[in-house]
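Researcher: Let's do a round of design. I'm pasting the structure tokens now; please hold your answer until I've finished.
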């Protein structure tokens, strides 16, 4: 988005971690109504980045600015954060939970009832507002956490692992809620193991693996760069250790993980077209490593099979 719009809401400059390869960092700017999807396999550092964006941890290097101020105590009232688990108080009803946080946020007592009702409406919780939290489903608790995060009208909303453990209809509901929050002009940072249903929400994308960001920026400018990234699952007849040894050093293979549930199965992010992947299979075969089956997880970048 053009700098003619003025100062960005969120500005990340040369953010890095000790695990990143030398010279690799994350930089992006988000203006009102823009959304960044932080996408990556488990243990790729998504949650650490989300905590840093919310001002709850310090980056090892680089800066994170919210409306020109370093994120931290002085910006906390302008940020709404939802962690990977709901973290709601089961002894309260939904409305009591929000009333508790309205008091914690020191919201104007005159406007509190309106702000609470607006948060319930926005997160589609009006029908269950009087129910005890312990009776709510996981998906409803998740949305209640989101209602708490938007209650004080923050400029930035950070939601870690935003679609985890949700059924398909619950995912659609959550995406609809997040779309409404975006329409209010808020900036959103959303993390997930795959892009899939978030694709329609996001204006920006950051793909993380263990030791580096693979791509970061506006989706429209990244399309050519990420078109050949694919999450692959490969099962071997035998020789798993030898297969892992070859894959760990093979160009274009990232974030290799061995399944603990399926025998001789590995999962990794691969950068290459069909011919490049066939070449990888040929190399493994020439080294006596026989592939039983392989498949692409199309949901990782929201591709259509």
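Researcher: That's everything. Go ahead.
Model: Designed sequence:
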């Amino acid at each position: 988005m053009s700098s003619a719009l003025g100062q960005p809401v969120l500005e990340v400059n040369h953010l890095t971690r000790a695990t990143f390869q030398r010279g690799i960092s994350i930089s992006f700017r988000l203006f009102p109504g823009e959304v960044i999807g932080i996408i990556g396999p488990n243990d790729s550092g998504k949650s650490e980045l989300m905590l840093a964006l919310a001002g709850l941890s310090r980056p090892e290097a680089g800066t994170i600015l919210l409306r020109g101020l370093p994120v931290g105590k002085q910006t906390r009232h302008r940020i709404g954060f939802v962690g990977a688990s709901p973290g709601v108080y089961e002894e309260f009803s939904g409305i009591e939970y929000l009333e508790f946080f309205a008091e914690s946020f020191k919201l104007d007592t005159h406007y509190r009832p309106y702000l609470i009702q607006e948060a319930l409406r926005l997160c589609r919780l009006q029908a269950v507002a009087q129910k005890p939290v312990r009776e709510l489903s996981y998906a409803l608790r998740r949305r209640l956490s989101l209602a708490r995060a938007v209650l004080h009208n923050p400029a930035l909303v950070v939601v870690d692992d935003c679609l985890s453990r949700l059924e398909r209809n619950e995912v659609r509901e959550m995406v609809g809620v997040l779309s409404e929050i975006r329409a209010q002009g808020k900036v959103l940072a959303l993390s997930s193991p795959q892009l899939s249903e978030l694709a329609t929400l996001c204006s920006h994308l950051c793909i993380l693996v263990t030791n580096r960001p693979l791509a970061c920026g506006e989706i429209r400018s990244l399309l050519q760069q990420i078109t050949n990234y694919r999450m692959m699952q490969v099962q071997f007849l035998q020789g798993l250790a030898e297969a892992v040894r070859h894959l760990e050093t093979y160009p274009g293979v990232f974030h290799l993980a061995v399944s603990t549930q399926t025998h001789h199965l590995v999962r990794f992010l691969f950068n290459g077209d069909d011919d490049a992947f066939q070449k990888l299979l040929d190399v493994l075969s020439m080294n006596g490593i026989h592939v039983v089956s392989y498949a692409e997880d199309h949901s990782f970048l929201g591709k259509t099979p």
